Amino acid sequence: MSREKSVHRRTVLRAAAGTGVLLTLSPGLLLTGCDGGVKAVESETLGLDSDEYDVELNLHAMPDSVPILPGAPSEVWRYRAELLKGPQNTVTENPDSYLGPTIRLRHGQTVKIHIHNELPEDTTVHWHGLHVPSDVDGQPRLPIRPGETMTVGFEVLDRAGLFWYHSHAHGKQGGRVGFQSYAGLAGLLIVEDEEEAGLKLPSGDNELLLVLQDRTFAGNNELVYMGGGMGSMMDRMHGFIGDRVLANGAPPTTRKVATRPYRIRVLNGSNARIYKLAWSDGRPVTVIGADGGLLQEPEDRPYAVLAPAQRLDIWVDLSEFQPGDALELISDRFRAGMMGGMGMMGSNALPLGSRFPLARLEVAESVEASEPLPAQLGVQRQKIPVNRNTRIRSFELSPVMMRGFAINGRRFDGTNVADDEKVRLGDTEIWEFHNSTPMPHPMHIHGLQFNVVGRRGGNSDSLQQGLVDSGWHDTVLVMPRETVQVAMKFERFDGLYIYHCHNMEHEDAGMMRYFQVQG
Ligand code: C2O
Ligand code: CU
Questions:
Q1: Under a CB-based contact definition with an 8 Å cutoff, are residues 461 and 488 in contact?
Q2: Does residue 446 have its Cβ closer than 6 Å to ligand 1?
Q3: How far is the CA of 296 from the centre of ligand 1 (A)?
Q4: Which residue owns the Cα nearest ligand 1 atom 1?
Q5: Block means of pLDDT (10 residues each) for the chain, length 519 residues?
Q6: Strand, helix or coil at 292?
Q7: For ligand 1, is residue 176 a contact (CB within 6 Å)?
């Protein structure tokens, strides 16, 4: 791309960011970078007071250019990290992808991260799923300005699991989560612990990490976020659905494997797309973990549903295969309320609920490996006890004419918290989400992991048997007309947290609220 052109595009992006009209710009809006030369300003350290940290790293949010499709590289925004202190395997770069480095932490470690904003607009970094103090949670109320550095510190209190980190910027003009995450600001964060290590699950080369995202590209491989006109309205209403799927930031690939068991850990890092994970030969999907780590025991499902922001841990045994055999992980066909109609609206080559491949496992080698799957997995963390006296707090998800969706009739209103959004530190509560809209909403609560108590109503027939509700979650899919109850305990940290729909376009349009944990 010529110099002149890139300067021009830069101007377009700035203007869009400044006025908040990004969502309505015509097709072909391009993601662009900005010049270097940003000035680092050290801000106060949030979180732990101690000077002693087990792990310390720099995390840069920056424009970059990476090859995604054959041909010209694409301009992206992405994270890069430098490990300053800690075990060598803490940071694994994904150099050929826009995805941020995979950060591997151990339960009990103290971690200090210097976040450098080298983008032309405000950003924040949210540690999705982690139980961290409110001030280091990466919320919109603590933006990092362009050129500034914010240092956050926390102790890893969570059990082993697959978490992730992503932008959570939301300014006066509205949310930027959808745009910034789409531009590439997301990465995996793995927590390890003793209990999980003791199970000797497939690891190293036998653990496959899979980040699923959908994207739309213009002619010269430029990422396109929102279409124009009618398409853009639909995008805002339904959430952005790209016309091709990327696995780990690239078109799905073939992976050479051996005749042995594998652990496949999947994140749905898409803005709005739901996946229906299944095996091409129809074998059951063996689920061993969800958002907040391992289930108590493995569960076989005909397919497994993965909504935006959710994670699934899948175990598969290829030991009966012969070299030359192949197995595909696919997303299978489904209907999801009103969103299913999108295909009929015409424009998208890959409507929500289409069938497409995610990864191909090709058996290249025969090995002797019998590693049976343990019958008991994560048993140390007890489910949150609830009974008929447990307080139930209800949240109605409802449409707002032309403006997206509301929670109990309210939309995002900065840090303003209503009386019924205040909870007490130490309390156990059941939150009940009632979906009175024709669309599914993946509801996410910051700062904790919850148990799904139950669901009723709803018309999720083509996804029903794949909803994994056991174990620990931070995001739960609430189908149209459905009521879902989740149990949680507000432990350790008081202060402001947020809860929202993780369909990023819904969230950005205001389907998000703060709640307050009162000490
Ligand atoms: Cu993954 Cu509030 O976000
Ligand atoms: Cu939603």
A1: no
A2: yes
A3: 25
A4: 128
A5: 32 31 28 32 50 92 96 97 96 93 97 97 98 96 96 95 98 92 98 97 96 95 81 81 96 96 98 98 98 98 98 97 97 75 58 96 92 94 96 97 91 97 98 95 98 88 93 97 97 97 96 97
A6: coil
A7: no
